[in-house]
Write a structure and sequence with these properties.
The structure holds 2 protein chains of 2 kinds. Chain A is mainly alpha-helical. Chain A has 6 helices and no strands. In chain B, helix 1 (about 15-25) links the parallel strand 1 and strand 2 (about 30-35). Chain B is globular. Classes of the chains: A mainly alpha, B alpha/beta. Chains A and B meet through helix 4 and helix 6 of A and helix 1, strand 3 and helix 3 of B.
C-alpha cells in the first residue's frame, strides 16, 4: 500500500506537471493547438493512470493484455509514431526554410544590384577605397574595373 | 559562345576563396563567377564582395552544400546563363582545366572532373579514398557505368540539367544521388580526368565523425534513387522557369 501510494505520488505528480506544462505552453503561444491535440490526450492518459494505477490493470484485463511487456510495447509504439510524425514535420519545415532562404538571397541580390546600377559610379569609388586588403593581394589591381555583371556580358 | 557561369559554394573559405577567384579570373576570364556564401562565420562574403567580377549570393541560414549549389543554379538560370560549372571554393579543383572541360560539353551531358585512379590513391585522405572507391564500385555494379571519382564536386552542365537541378537537388550529400537520377533520366555522365590540388587551408567538410553518417546516408540515397519517382525525367517541366 505504501509503495502504491508513493508510485501514485510520483507518476500522478509528474503527469499533473506535464498537463499543466502543456496548458501553460499553449497559453504562452509556444505550442500550437494542433500539436496540443497530440500531447493533451497523452498527458490526460498519464494523469488518470498515474493517479489510479489499478485502473490500468483493470483495463488491461478487459482488453486481454495480460503481459506488462505488451502494454509497454503499445506505449512505445505510440511514442514512435509521434516521433515519426515530428521528424516528418521537421523535414518538411527544413525544405520550406531552404526555399525561403534561397528566395531571400536571390531577392537581396537583385535589390543590391539594382541599387548599384542606379548609383554605379559613386558605389564603385567607395568600394575601391574600402582598404580592407593589402596591396599585395591579387585582388587589388583588378578593383578598378566596374563591378557589374552587365559589363562582363559584353566582353 | 555559351554564356558561362562558375558557381562556387563557399562556407568558411576566407583563407582560400580569394586565390580561387583570382585563378578563375586568370584562366577563364570569359566566365562569370557566382559565389554562394552559405552563412559563413568568417570574412568569406566580404572578400567576395570586394572582388569586381564575382556575384555574391548570401544565405541567411546554412543551406548545406546542395542547397547552396541549388541557389547558385537558380540565380544563373534566371540570369540566362547556358553553361554552368560548379566547383569548390577551397582551391582543390584545378582551374586551368576548365576551358578544356567546357569544350567537351554537349547538351544532355554532365561532365565530372575526376581524379585518375593512381593520383587519387596517392593524394586524398583515408575517408574520402574508401568512400569514393566504395561508390565507384556501387555505380559499376548497379548502373554499369564506370565513374572513377563519383563523389567529385567539379561539374560542368548545361541549361537542360540546370533546370532539373532547380527542381530537385539534395541538401547534404548531393553528388551520388543526382548522378543516379540523371543516369535514370537518360542523361550521360562523362568523367573528365583532372589533377586535383592539395588543400590549401581550412578544414574539409567531411570530418572523421561525419564519415559514418555520410556513408550511411549516401548508400541509402543511392538505392532509394532507383525506386523513387524520378524528378529529372524529361517529361516534367519546371514551373516558373521558362
Amino acid at each position: 500500500m505504501n509503495i502504491d501510494l508513493s508510485a501514485r505520488l510520483i507518476f500522478g505528480g509528474s503527469a499533473l506537471l506535464l498537463t499543466l506544462g502543456i496548458l501553460l505552453l499553449i497559453r504562452n503561444g509556444s505550442l500550437k493547438e494542433k500539436y496540443a491535440l497530440l500531447w493533451l490526450p497523452l498527458s490526460v492518459f498519464f494523469l488518470v493512470f498515474g493517479l489510479f494505477p489499478s485502473l490500468l490493470l483493470w483495463v488491461a484485463q478487459k482488453v486481454h493484455l495480460h503481459y506488462i511487456t505488451i502494454v509497454l510495447l503499445c506505449v512505445i509504439m505510440v511514442f514512435t509514431y509521434m516521433l515519426l510524425y515530428i521528424t516528418l514535420r521537421l523535414s518538411q519545415m527544413r525544405e520550406d526554410m531552404k526555399k525561403l532562404a534561397q528566395e531571400l538571397a536571390l531577392t537581396q541580390n537583385r535589390f543590391v544590384s539594382k541599387e548599384t546600377s542606379g548609383d554605379s559610379a559613386s558605389w564603385s569609388v567607395g568600394h575601391s577605397q574600402d582598404g580592407k586588403y593589402s596591396p599585395t593581394s591579387p585582388l587589388r589591381p583588378k578593383q578598378k574595373k566596374k563591378p557589374t555583371l552587365g559589363e562582363s556580358q559584353n566582353t | 559562345m555559351h554564356k558561362t557561369a562558375i558557381i562556387i559554394p563557399a562556407r568558411n573559405e576566407a583563407s582560400n576563396i580569394a586565390g580561387v577567384l583570382h585563378a578563375v579570373h586568370e584562366y577563364f576570364p570569359q566566365a562569370d563567377i557566382v559565389v554562394v556564401d552559405d552563412n559563413s562565420d568568417d570574412d568569406t562574403a566580404e572578400i567576395v564582395r570586394c572582388h569586381p567580377r564575382a556575384v555574391l549570393l548570401q544565405s541567411p541560414i546554412t543551406l548545406g552544400i546542395g542547397g547552396a549549389v541549388q541557389l547558385g543554379v537558380k540565380y544563373c538560370v534566371k540570369e540566362g546563363y547556358t553553361l554552368f560549372i560548379r566547383m569548390d571554393g577551397d582551391g582543390q579543383h584545378p582551374v586551368e582545366c576548365l576551358p578544356e572541360m567546357v569544350r567537351n560539353w554537349r547538351p544532355g551531358l554532365l561532365i565530372q572532373g575526376s581524379r585518375s585512379r593512381g593520383e587519387f590513391l596517392g593524394t586524398s585522405n583515408g575517408i574520402r579514398k574508401i568512400g569514393s572507391l566504395y561508390f565507384c564500385m556501387l555505380f559499376k555494379i548497379f548502373t554499369g557505368r564506370y565513374l572513377p571519382d563519383p563523389t567529385s564536386g567539379l561539374l560542368c552542365f548545361g541549361r537542360d540539367i540546370a533546370e532539373k537541378f532547380i527542381r530537385f537537388f539534395p541538401s547534404d550529400f548531393p553528388e551520388i544521388e543526382t548522378e543516379v537520377l540523371l543516369i535514370r533520366a537518360g542523361y550521360d555522365i562523362l568523367p573528365f580526368q583532372v589533377a586535383m590540388q592539395a588543400r590549401q587551408g581550412g578544414n574539409s567538410s567531411i570530418g572523421l565523425f561525419h564519415a559514418g553518417v555520410y556513408m550511411f546516408s549516401v548508400t541509402l540515397a543511392f538505392f532509394i534513387s532507383f525506386f523513387r519517382k524520378n524528378p529529372y525525367s524529361p517529361s516534367i517541366k519546371v514551373a516558373g522557369f521558362p
